[in-house]
């Protein structure tokens, strides 16, 4: 079903789009929108009650875009209110706080909530997602690094931005790229343009990098049983090295994953006769 695609318009004509924000409570959704629309930052936390709604106009190339922004409350309590607003959306600003791992881990649940609400005929491929890794000004508390966030976003074909609603870093760039991508999508008959980055690495590479990041020890990292032989370790190493070598793999985090695999192999071989 293609219900969320606004009618294809001639270039130069105005276009009306619907954009929503998603992500856990307190990650900074309202502040990102305020920073862009009102050029200000609100340091006091005022939880969104249900939904906040605003209208703004932006210019993309020769087109005037009327943007209806629905800023969703992130608190689970407001699920019933939120689920009225997922339909007919062209763009989603999906936000997490780089200092709150839970808010990053929750991104899949946010996509699932939207998918469930759109129903079996809903199509998320027609929607532009901009992932905002927010609060990058709080560098001391950061626990989700750029490559982890970028890998998650780009492996799904989503845009990825490092943002701070407090300093304004990354906010204009995010909105400009986001709106251009939505207009491209509308002019492209509702198909999300393929980003260079998402097209250039495989799901296997992305999944392997994530597995390596989450591995508990060197055996686990190489995917061999504790006590494996030199041959088994070397075989597993060679397979991973081919998959992740920085000359072959451009997925975010591949260089670190490759180094970790080299170190894991060295450490294991030291202790195997
Ligand atoms: N340091 C810092 N604080 C931020 C940033 N963005 C938002 N905040 C603060 O984080 C708190 C929550 O911000 P909101 O924008 O209200 O969060 P929200 O995601 O809209 O929250 P809900 O409405 O409950 O869903 C506020 O105290 C903001 O001042 C940021 O980039 N850096």
From TrEMBL:
Any Pfam family matching the protein: Ras
Main location class: membrane
Single biological process term from Gene Ontology: phagosome-lysosome fusion
Compartments, record wording: Cytoplasmic vesicle, Phagosome membrane; Nucleus
SMART domains on file: DnaJ (SM00271), RAB (SM00175), RAN (SM00176), RAS (SM00173), RHO (SM00174)
Keyword GTP-binding carried by entry: yes
GO CC annotation: late endosome; lysosome; nucleus; phagocytic vesicle membrane
Keywords: GTP-binding, Nucleotide-binding, Nucleus
Database matches in InterPro entries: DnaJ_domain (IPR001623), J_dom_sf (IPR036869), P-loop_NTPase (IPR027417), Small_GTP-bd (IPR005225), Small_GTPase (IPR001806)
Record has GTP-binding as a keyword: yes
One term of GO molecular function: GTPase activity
Function recorded in the entry: GTPase which can activate the MEK/ERK pathway and induce cell transformation when overexpressed. May act as a nuclear scaffold for MAPK1, probably by association with MAPK1 nuclear export signal leading to enhanced ERK1/ERK2 signaling.
Similarity annotation: Belongs to the small GTPase superfamily. Rab family.
Quaternary structure and interacting proteins, as annotated: Interacts directly with MAPK1 (wild-type and kinase-deficient forms). Interacts directly (in GTP-bound form) with MAP2K1 (wild-type and kinase-deficient forms).
Protein's name according to its UniProt entry: DnaJ homolog subfamily C member 27
Organism of this sequence: Balaenoptera physalus
Organismal lineage: Eukaryota, Metazoa, Chordata, Craniata, Vertebrata
């Amino acid at each position: 079903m293609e219900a969320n695609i606004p009618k294809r318009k001639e270039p130069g004509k105005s276009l009306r789009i619907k954009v929503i924000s998603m992500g856990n409570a307190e990650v900074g959704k309202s502040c990102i929108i305020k920073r862009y629309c009102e050029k200000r930052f609100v340091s006091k936390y005022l939880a969104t009650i249900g939904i906040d709604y605003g209208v703004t106009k932006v210019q993309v190339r020769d087109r005037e875009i009327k943007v209806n922004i629905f800023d969703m409350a992130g608190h689970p309590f407001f699920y019933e209110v939120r689920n009225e607003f997922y339909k007919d959306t062209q763009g989603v600003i999906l936000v997490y706080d780089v200092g709150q791992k839970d808010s990053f881990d929750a991104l899949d649940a946010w996509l699932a909530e939207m998918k469930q609400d759109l129903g079996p005929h809903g199509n998320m491929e027609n929607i532009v997602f901009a992932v905002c890794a927010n609060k990058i000004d709080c560098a001391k508390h950061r626990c989700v690094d750029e490559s982890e966030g970028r890998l998650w976003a780009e492996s799904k074909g989503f845009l990825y931005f490092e943002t701070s609603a407090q300093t304004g870093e990354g906010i204009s760039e995010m909105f400009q790229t986001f709106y251009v991508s939505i207009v491209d999508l509308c002019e492209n008959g509702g198909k999300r343009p393929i980003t260079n980055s998402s097209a250039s690495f495989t799901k296997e590479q992305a999944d392997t990098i994530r597995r390596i990041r989450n591995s508990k020890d060197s055996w686990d990292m190489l995917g061999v049983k504790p006590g494996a032989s030199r041959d088994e370790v070397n075989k597993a190493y060679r397979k991973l090295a081919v998959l992740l070598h920085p000359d072959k793999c451009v997925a975010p985090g591949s260089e670190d994953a490759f180094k970790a695999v080299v170190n894991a192999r060295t450490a294991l071989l030291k202790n195997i006769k």
